[in-house]
Amino acid sequence: MTPGATTVRSLVLHATETGDGEQPRQANQRYKDPRIALEQRHLQPLHPGALRLQMLRVGVCGTDLHMTQRDPLGFVRSSAPASIPQQGRVLGHEGIGRVIATGSDVTRFRVGDIVAPESVLSCGACRCCRSGAFNQCLDARLLGMEQDGLFAAIADVPARSAVAIGALAGSERGLQMAACLEPAGVALLACRKTQMAPGERVLVFGAGPIGLLVAMMARRLHGAALVAVVEPSAYRREFAAAWADRVAESAEALEIPDGGWGWDVVVEASGVLANVDAVFRQIAPGGRVALLGRGGQALRIGAVDHMITNAISVMGLRGHLGGVYERLIDLCLSGVLPLDRIVSSTMEGLERLRSVLEHPDDIAGGDCKIVVKLAD
Q1: Residue 241's Cα: distance from chain center in Å?
Q2: Helix (H, G, I), strand (E, B) or coil at 365
Q3: Is residue 92 part of a domain?
Q4: pLDDT by residue (tens digit) across 157-185?
Q5: Do 209 and 274 form a contact (C-beta atoms < 8 A)?
Q6: pLDDT tens digits along 239-259
Protein backbone atom coordinates (compact mmCIF):
# COMPACT_ATOMS: atom_id res chain seq x y z
CA MET A 1 0.00 0.00 0.00
CA THR A 2 1.64 3.21 -1.12
CA PRO A 3 1.19 6.51 0.75
CA GLY A 4 -1.67 8.54 -0.65
CA ALA A 5 -3.34 5.55 -2.32
CA THR A 6 -7.10 5.80 -2.64
CA THR A 7 -7.93 2.12 -3.17
CA VAL A 8 -7.11 -0.98 -1.19
CA ARG A 9 -7.17 -4.71 -1.96
CA SER A 10 -10.01 -6.41 -0.12
CA LEU A 11 -11.58 -9.85 0.03
CA VAL A 12 -15.27 -9.30 -0.61
CA LEU A 13 -18.26 -11.61 -0.18
CA HIS A 14 -21.10 -11.21 -2.66
CA ALA A 15 -24.48 -12.92 -2.39
CA THR A 16 -28.00 -12.60 -3.76
CA GLU A 17 -30.61 -11.22 -1.38
CA THR A 18 -33.86 -13.12 -1.69
CA GLY A 19 -37.46 -11.96 -1.57
CA ASP A 20 -40.20 -13.13 0.79
CA GLY A 21 -41.29 -15.76 -1.71
CA GLU A 22 -38.15 -17.83 -1.13
CA GLN A 23 -39.26 -20.47 1.40
CA PRO A 24 -38.51 -22.40 3.50
CA ARG A 25 -35.62 -20.67 5.24
CA GLN A 26 -33.64 -21.59 8.31
CA ALA A 27 -32.93 -19.11 11.10
CA ASN A 28 -32.42 -15.59 9.73
CA GLN A 29 -31.04 -16.52 6.32
CA ARG A 30 -31.60 -13.88 3.65
CA TYR A 31 -28.80 -14.49 1.16
CA LYS A 32 -28.14 -17.09 -1.51
CA ASP A 33 -25.25 -18.19 -3.70
CA PRO A 34 -22.26 -16.70 -1.84
CA ARG A 35 -19.13 -15.98 -3.89
CA ILE A 36 -15.74 -14.53 -2.99
CA ALA A 37 -13.82 -11.92 -4.98
CA LEU A 38 -10.51 -10.09 -4.50
CA GLU A 39 -11.22 -6.46 -5.37
CA GLN A 40 -9.87 -2.95 -5.19
CA ARG A 41 -12.14 -0.99 -2.85
CA HIS A 42 -12.12 2.79 -2.48
CA LEU A 43 -10.93 4.14 0.85
CA GLN A 44 -13.59 6.35 2.42
CA PRO A 45 -12.82 9.47 4.50
CA LEU A 46 -11.73 8.41 7.98
CA HIS A 47 -14.46 8.98 10.59
CA PRO A 48 -13.56 11.20 13.57
CA GLY A 49 -13.59 8.32 16.08
CA ALA A 50 -11.94 5.71 13.86
CA LEU A 51 -8.54 4.14 13.33
CA ARG A 52 -7.11 3.22 9.96
CA LEU A 53 -5.12 -0.01 10.22
CA GLN A 54 -2.61 -1.67 7.98
CA MET A 55 -3.57 -5.27 8.64
CA LEU A 56 -0.69 -7.47 9.79
CA ARG A 57 -2.37 -10.78 10.67
CA VAL A 58 -5.92 -12.04 10.28
CA GLY A 59 -7.51 -15.22 11.56
CA VAL A 60 -10.05 -17.38 9.77
CA CYS A 61 -13.12 -18.11 11.90
CA GLY A 62 -15.72 -20.81 11.39
CA THR A 63 -18.23 -18.03 10.79
CA ASP A 64 -16.14 -16.77 7.85
CA LEU A 65 -16.26 -20.27 6.38
CA HIS A 66 -20.00 -20.59 6.99
CA MET A 67 -20.58 -17.26 5.23
CA THR A 68 -19.06 -18.76 2.08
CA GLN A 69 -20.84 -22.13 2.30
CA ARG A 70 -24.26 -23.03 0.92
CA ASP A 71 -26.92 -25.03 2.72
CA PRO A 72 -28.96 -27.60 0.71
CA LEU A 73 -31.25 -24.81 -0.53
CA GLY A 74 -28.36 -22.60 -1.64
CA PHE A 75 -28.62 -20.13 1.25
CA VAL A 76 -25.57 -18.83 3.07
CA ARG A 77 -24.96 -21.41 5.78
CA SER A 78 -24.24 -18.96 8.62
CA SER A 79 -27.16 -18.04 10.85
CA ALA A 80 -25.31 -15.14 12.52
CA PRO A 81 -26.61 -11.60 11.93
CA ALA A 82 -25.29 -10.37 8.59
CA SER A 83 -25.83 -7.63 6.07
CA ILE A 84 -24.43 -8.05 2.57
CA PRO A 85 -25.01 -4.89 0.51
CA GLN A 86 -25.07 -4.80 -3.26
CA GLN A 87 -21.38 -3.91 -3.40
CA GLY A 88 -20.53 -6.87 -1.17
CA ARG A 89 -19.21 -7.25 2.34
CA VAL A 90 -15.54 -7.35 3.37
CA LEU A 91 -15.32 -10.36 5.70
CA GLY A 92 -13.06 -10.86 8.72
CA HIS A 93 -13.39 -10.08 12.43
CA GLU A 94 -10.18 -11.56 13.86
CA GLY A 95 -6.81 -9.89 13.49
CA ILE A 96 -4.29 -7.24 14.39
CA GLY A 97 -3.19 -4.12 12.54
CA ARG A 98 -0.79 -1.20 12.74
CA VAL A 99 -2.36 2.25 13.10
CA ILE A 100 -1.52 4.34 10.03
CA ALA A 101 -4.02 7.16 10.64
CA THR A 102 -6.31 8.35 13.43
CA GLY A 103 -9.62 10.18 13.31
CA SER A 104 -9.82 13.72 14.58
CA ASP A 105 -11.41 12.70 17.90
CA VAL A 106 -8.95 9.90 18.70
CA THR A 107 -6.53 10.60 21.55
CA ARG A 108 -5.78 7.15 22.97
CA PHE A 109 -3.82 5.78 20.00
CA ARG A 110 -0.96 7.00 17.86
CA VAL A 111 0.34 6.13 14.42
CA GLY A 112 2.52 3.04 14.76
CA ASP A 113 0.55 1.37 17.57
CA ILE A 114 -0.40 -2.25 16.93
CA VAL A 115 -3.94 -3.05 18.00
CA ALA A 116 -6.52 -5.83 18.01
CA PRO A 117 -10.10 -4.78 17.20
CA GLU A 118 -12.96 -6.38 19.09
CA SER A 119 -15.54 -8.08 16.90
CA VAL A 120 -18.77 -6.80 18.50
CA LEU A 121 -18.96 -3.07 17.79
CA SER A 122 -21.02 -1.65 20.64
CA CYS A 123 -22.55 1.80 20.91
CA GLY A 124 -21.45 2.51 24.49
CA ALA A 125 -24.68 4.37 25.25
CA CYS A 126 -27.58 1.89 25.43
CA ARG A 127 -28.78 0.27 28.65
CA CYS A 128 -26.75 -2.91 28.07
CA CYS A 129 -23.54 -1.00 27.40
CA ARG A 130 -24.05 1.21 30.44
CA SER A 131 -24.37 -1.94 32.57
CA GLY A 132 -21.09 -3.30 31.17
CA ALA A 133 -22.67 -5.97 28.92
CA PHE A 134 -21.13 -4.58 25.73
CA ASN A 135 -21.62 -7.77 23.72
CA GLN A 136 -25.39 -7.49 24.36
CA CYS A 137 -25.46 -3.93 23.00
CA LEU A 138 -28.91 -3.15 21.63
CA ASP A 139 -27.35 -1.40 18.62
CA ALA A 140 -24.36 -3.71 18.13
CA ARG A 141 -22.90 -4.36 14.71
CA LEU A 142 -20.72 -7.35 13.98
CA LEU A 143 -17.39 -6.58 12.34
CA GLY A 144 -17.03 -8.39 9.02
CA MET A 145 -20.72 -9.32 9.06
CA GLU A 146 -22.73 -6.11 9.37
CA GLN A 147 -19.82 -3.72 8.84
CA ASP A 148 -16.83 -4.17 6.54
CA GLY A 149 -14.17 -6.21 8.27
CA LEU A 150 -10.48 -7.02 8.38
CA PHE A 151 -9.80 -9.16 5.28
CA ALA A 152 -8.14 -6.26 3.50
CA ALA A 153 -4.74 -4.61 3.24
CA ILE A 154 -6.21 -1.64 5.13
CA ALA A 155 -9.26 -1.59 7.41
CA ASP A 156 -11.05 1.15 9.34
CA VAL A 157 -12.37 0.30 12.81
CA PRO A 158 -13.86 2.32 15.68
CA ALA A 159 -11.10 3.38 18.10
CA ARG A 160 -13.30 2.43 21.06
CA SER A 161 -13.27 -1.21 19.90
CA ALA A 162 -9.46 -1.44 19.65
CA VAL A 163 -7.00 -2.70 22.26
CA ALA A 164 -3.22 -2.16 22.07
CA ILE A 165 -1.47 -5.52 22.16
CA GLY A 166 1.52 -4.15 24.08
CA ALA A 167 4.56 -6.40 24.47
CA LEU A 168 3.04 -9.10 22.25
CA ALA A 169 4.01 -6.87 19.33
CA GLY A 170 7.70 -7.49 20.03
CA SER A 171 8.01 -11.00 18.58
CA GLU A 172 6.64 -13.19 15.81
CA ARG A 173 5.19 -15.57 18.39
CA GLY A 174 3.52 -12.66 20.17
CA LEU A 175 1.92 -11.51 16.92
CA GLN A 176 0.60 -15.03 16.33
CA MET A 177 -0.92 -15.09 19.81
CA ALA A 178 -2.41 -11.63 19.34
CA ALA A 179 -4.07 -12.81 16.13
CA CYS A 180 -5.94 -15.37 18.27
CA LEU A 181 -7.26 -12.92 20.88
CA GLU A 182 -10.79 -12.75 19.47
CA PRO A 183 -11.61 -16.49 19.64
CA ALA A 184 -9.76 -16.66 22.96
CA GLY A 185 -12.07 -13.93 24.26
CA VAL A 186 -15.10 -16.03 23.31
CA ALA A 187 -13.64 -19.05 25.10
CA LEU A 188 -12.73 -17.05 28.20
CA LEU A 189 -16.26 -15.66 28.42
CA ALA A 190 -17.65 -19.21 28.22
CA CYS A 191 -15.42 -20.34 31.07
CA ARG A 192 -16.42 -17.32 33.16
CA LYS A 193 -20.15 -17.57 32.55
CA THR A 194 -20.26 -21.29 33.29
CA GLN A 195 -18.38 -20.58 36.53
CA MET A 196 -15.88 -23.32 35.74
CA ALA A 197 -14.19 -24.36 38.99
CA PRO A 198 -11.23 -26.51 40.11
CA GLY A 199 -11.96 -30.22 40.21
CA GLU A 200 -14.88 -30.09 37.80
CA ARG A 201 -15.47 -32.27 34.76
CA VAL A 202 -15.74 -30.43 31.47
CA LEU A 203 -17.05 -31.75 28.16
CA VAL A 204 -16.45 -29.77 24.96
CA PHE A 205 -18.12 -30.49 21.63
CA GLY A 206 -16.02 -29.36 18.68
CA ALA A 207 -12.22 -29.12 18.41
CA GLY A 208 -12.20 -26.02 16.29
CA PRO A 209 -10.29 -23.01 17.64
CA ILE A 210 -12.86 -22.00 20.25
CA GLY A 211 -13.43 -25.55 21.48
CA LEU A 212 -9.67 -26.07 21.78
CA LEU A 213 -9.27 -22.81 23.65
CA VAL A 214 -12.04 -23.76 26.10
CA ALA A 215 -10.24 -27.06 26.74
CA MET A 216 -6.91 -25.24 27.19
CA MET A 217 -8.43 -22.77 29.65
CA ALA A 218 -10.34 -25.47 31.55
CA ARG A 219 -7.03 -27.17 32.24
CA ARG A 220 -4.60 -24.26 32.63
CA LEU A 221 -6.80 -21.56 34.17
CA HIS A 222 -9.56 -23.37 36.02
CA GLY A 223 -8.01 -26.62 37.24
CA ALA A 224 -10.55 -28.99 35.74
CA ALA A 225 -10.17 -32.56 36.98
CA LEU A 226 -11.24 -34.00 33.63
CA VAL A 227 -11.45 -32.41 30.18
CA ALA A 228 -13.07 -34.34 27.33
CA VAL A 229 -13.48 -33.27 23.70
CA VAL A 230 -15.83 -34.76 21.10
CA GLU A 231 -14.77 -34.14 17.50
CA PRO A 232 -15.57 -36.12 14.31
CA SER A 233 -12.41 -34.99 12.46
CA ALA A 234 -9.45 -37.32 13.10
CA TYR A 235 -6.98 -34.47 12.44
CA ARG A 236 -8.64 -32.21 14.99
CA ARG A 237 -8.88 -35.02 17.54
CA GLU A 238 -5.10 -35.37 17.37
CA PHE A 239 -4.79 -31.62 17.80
CA ALA A 240 -7.11 -31.69 20.84
CA ALA A 241 -5.13 -34.39 22.63
CA ALA A 242 -2.70 -31.78 23.98
CA TRP A 243 -5.47 -30.23 26.08
CA ALA A 244 -7.93 -33.06 26.72
CA ASP A 245 -7.78 -36.12 28.94
CA ARG A 246 -10.25 -37.91 26.68
CA VAL A 247 -10.98 -37.40 22.99
CA ALA A 248 -13.76 -39.20 21.12
CA GLU A 249 -15.35 -39.20 17.68
CA SER A 250 -18.89 -39.00 19.08
CA ALA A 251 -20.75 -38.64 22.34
CA GLU A 252 -21.70 -42.33 22.14
CA ALA A 253 -18.01 -43.29 21.99
CA LEU A 254 -17.15 -41.20 25.05
CA GLU A 255 -17.06 -42.89 28.44
CA ILE A 256 -19.22 -41.39 31.17
CA PRO A 257 -17.04 -39.91 33.94
CA ASP A 258 -15.99 -42.39 36.60
CA GLY A 259 -18.26 -42.62 39.62
CA GLY A 260 -21.41 -41.65 37.72
CA TRP A 261 -21.35 -38.03 38.85
CA GLY A 262 -21.56 -36.68 35.31
CA TRP A 263 -20.38 -33.53 33.56
CA ASP A 264 -20.30 -30.29 35.50
CA VAL A 265 -19.85 -28.11 32.40
CA VAL A 266 -20.79 -28.85 28.78
CA VAL A 267 -19.68 -26.42 26.08
CA GLU A 268 -21.25 -26.86 22.64
CA ALA A 269 -18.82 -25.24 20.18
CA SER A 270 -19.53 -27.29 17.07
CA GLY A 271 -22.90 -25.87 16.03
CA VAL A 272 -24.54 -29.33 16.19
CA LEU A 273 -27.12 -28.68 18.88
CA ALA A 274 -28.29 -32.30 18.98
CA ASN A 275 -25.11 -32.94 20.98
CA VAL A 276 -26.66 -31.28 24.01
CA ASP A 277 -29.66 -33.60 24.11
CA ALA A 278 -27.43 -36.63 23.53
CA VAL A 279 -25.58 -36.08 26.83
CA PHE A 280 -28.16 -34.20 28.87
CA ARG A 281 -28.87 -37.07 31.29
CA GLN A 282 -25.10 -37.28 31.92
CA ILE A 283 -24.97 -33.72 33.26
CA ALA A 284 -24.35 -33.50 37.00
CA PRO A 285 -26.59 -31.67 39.49
CA GLY A 286 -25.97 -27.96 39.20
CA GLY A 287 -24.42 -28.48 35.77
CA ARG A 288 -24.08 -25.68 33.24
CA VAL A 289 -24.39 -25.83 29.45
CA ALA A 290 -22.99 -23.09 27.21
CA LEU A 291 -24.01 -22.79 23.56
CA LEU A 292 -21.33 -21.13 21.41
CA GLY A 293 -21.59 -22.69 17.94
CA ARG A 294 -24.26 -21.35 15.63
CA GLY A 295 -25.96 -23.81 13.33
CA GLY A 296 -29.40 -22.31 12.82
CA GLN A 297 -30.90 -25.43 14.38
CA ALA A 298 -33.56 -25.83 17.04
CA LEU A 299 -32.40 -26.83 20.51
CA ARG A 300 -34.39 -29.80 21.79
CA ILE A 301 -34.04 -31.16 25.31
CA GLY A 302 -35.97 -34.33 26.01
CA ALA A 303 -34.86 -34.76 29.62
CA VAL A 304 -36.65 -31.70 30.99
CA ASP A 305 -37.45 -33.45 34.28
CA HIS A 306 -33.72 -34.14 34.71
CA MET A 307 -33.06 -30.46 34.02
CA ILE A 308 -35.61 -29.30 36.62
CA THR A 309 -34.67 -31.83 39.30
CA ASN A 310 -30.95 -31.14 38.99
CA ALA A 311 -31.09 -27.36 38.48
CA ILE A 312 -29.19 -27.49 35.19
CA SER A 313 -28.61 -24.16 33.43
CA VAL A 314 -28.45 -23.63 29.66
CA MET A 315 -27.07 -20.36 28.31
CA GLY A 316 -26.18 -18.84 24.97
CA LEU A 317 -23.05 -16.71 24.63
CA ARG A 318 -21.40 -14.58 21.97
CA GLY A 319 -18.37 -12.35 21.82
CA HIS A 320 -16.67 -11.17 24.98
CA LEU A 321 -17.11 -8.53 27.63
CA GLY A 322 -14.98 -5.41 28.12
CA GLY A 323 -11.52 -5.98 29.56
CA VAL A 324 -11.12 -9.53 28.25
CA TYR A 325 -8.35 -8.73 25.75
CA GLU A 326 -6.23 -7.03 28.40
CA ARG A 327 -6.45 -10.07 30.67
CA LEU A 328 -5.66 -12.43 27.81
CA ILE A 329 -2.59 -10.41 26.82
CA ASP A 330 -1.28 -10.68 30.39
CA LEU A 331 -1.94 -14.45 30.39
CA CYS A 332 -0.06 -14.82 27.10
CA LEU A 333 2.92 -12.81 28.34
CA SER A 334 3.09 -14.83 31.55
CA GLY A 335 3.13 -18.11 29.61
CA VAL A 336 -0.12 -19.40 31.10
CA LEU A 337 -2.00 -19.37 27.79
CA PRO A 338 0.09 -20.30 24.72
CA LEU A 339 -2.57 -19.19 22.26
CA ASP A 340 -0.28 -19.72 19.27
CA ARG A 341 -0.40 -23.48 19.85
CA ILE A 342 -3.86 -23.69 18.32
CA VAL A 343 -2.51 -22.32 15.00
CA SER A 344 -2.25 -25.18 12.52
CA SER A 345 -1.36 -23.18 9.39
CA THR A 346 0.18 -19.78 8.68
CA MET A 347 -0.31 -18.45 5.17
CA GLU A 348 0.68 -15.28 3.35
CA GLY A 349 -1.44 -12.90 1.34
CA LEU A 350 -5.03 -12.26 0.40
CA GLU A 351 -4.73 -14.61 -2.58
CA ARG A 352 -4.11 -17.57 -0.27
CA LEU A 353 -6.96 -16.44 1.96
CA ARG A 354 -9.26 -16.30 -1.05
CA SER A 355 -8.30 -19.87 -1.92
CA VAL A 356 -9.16 -21.01 1.60
CA LEU A 357 -12.57 -19.35 1.51
CA GLU A 358 -13.29 -20.74 -1.96
CA HIS A 359 -12.86 -24.28 -0.55
CA PRO A 360 -14.29 -24.00 2.98
CA ASP A 361 -15.24 -27.68 3.23
CA ASP A 362 -11.56 -28.68 3.17
CA ILE A 363 -10.67 -26.95 6.44
CA ALA A 364 -12.07 -29.27 9.11
CA GLY A 365 -10.28 -32.33 7.74
CA GLY A 366 -6.79 -30.84 7.62
CA ASP A 367 -6.66 -27.61 9.60
CA CYS A 368 -7.67 -26.04 12.87
CA LYS A 369 -6.72 -22.38 13.19
CA ILE A 370 -5.48 -20.56 10.09
CA VAL A 371 -3.64 -17.27 10.50
CA VAL A 372 -2.88 -15.22 7.38
CA LYS A 373 0.06 -12.84 7.29
CA LEU A 374 -0.74 -9.69 5.31
CA ALA A 375 2.21 -7.44 6.23
CA ASP A 376 5.23 -7.20 8.54
Answers
A1: 21
A2: helix
A3: yes
A4: 999 999 999 999 999 999 999 999 999 99
A5: no
A6: 999 999 999 999 999 887 777
